[in-house]
Amino acid sequence: ENPAIINLTSNIKALHANLLASLSGVYQSLQISKRNLDHQASLYNARIENVPTQEREYTERARQQQIKAELFLMLLQKREENSLALAVTANSAKIIDEALATSFPVSPKKPLIYLIALLLGCVIPVIVLYLIDFFNLKIKNRAELEKLTNITILGEVNQSSTGESIVVKENHNNHSTEAFRGIRTNLKFLVGSGGHKVLMVTSSVPGEGKTFISMNLAISISLVGKKVVLVGMDVRKPMLASYLAVDGKKGTTNYISGIETDLNLLIQPSGINDNLKIITSGIIPPNPAELLMSDRLDSMIEQLKKQFDYVILDCAPISLVTDSLILSRVADATLYVLRANYTYKKTISWINELVKERKLPS
Length: 362
Fold this sequence. Notes:
Elements: H1 3-88, H2 110-135, H3 142-148, H4 175-191, E1 197-203, H5 210-222, E2 228-232, H6 240-244, H7 252-256, E3 268-269, E4 276-279, H8 288-292, H9 295-307, E5 310-314, H10 323-327, E6 333-337, H11 346-356
Parallel strand pairs: 1-5, 1-6, 2-4, 2-5
Antiparallel strand pairs: 3-4
């Protein structure tokens, strides 16, 4: 516990701590140096390991360069040899006199080519149009129809763009309404204005629009104050009731067959105007042709003529069945419906024969 001893002990401890700190710093610096040296050694080792790969790639590229250089030299040598060979070889032909040429070429002859082109330009369209007309078996327009027949054409009606069955309406002006007005006017000149008229509307085959024409023509006539009754006489495939939304269970066949004796009970309002009445075809009979030959049909038409100014009969297609020919005995005139791009041209000759033989009233 002597103070001198205590001081010496403190100095010794301080020197010991300083020595340990110095040794630790030296150790850490040596560790850092070691790591740097290890990193450099790894880099040098990697370079040493890559030396064979680089040498192989260099050798390969050098070999390719040498091959291409030799090939290029060979091609240059061949080109020079060919040039020398062409320079030494003499021409096999000589020009004795220069060719003489006129201002116009001998061939091709332009005027002849222009003439042929003009002829082809005129002949080919004519041939094409002739072939189109030759292979066109259906009627396209009114002009074609006028060439095939001398029968009076009352008018043309365009197909409804809206798909409606009834296109003639009161206080409406459109192309279809005007077309039916024209037909109505022409019909007046054809059959006259006096007396009661019975008009039968028929066509060649189904789908030509006879029911459409019948309905709208009846409406058009009724709009001028005439009393009109539209009678469905297509007893095999009736369509009138479905178009006008009326009762089709009772109609013409009911009266002709004797099931119904009062004709007035079969007359239905059209729902369009008061001047137009409807009589549907009725039930489909098993013997349509025999039924239409009954005298009750004549009696029915006579009664209708007393009540109405116009009796329009929507008949069956005439080329399929004989119903329309049978009905012709009670009609004053026949309206034959044809459809563009639908009716065949050969049908017109058959119609001409019917008119010539007076099998249809005209």
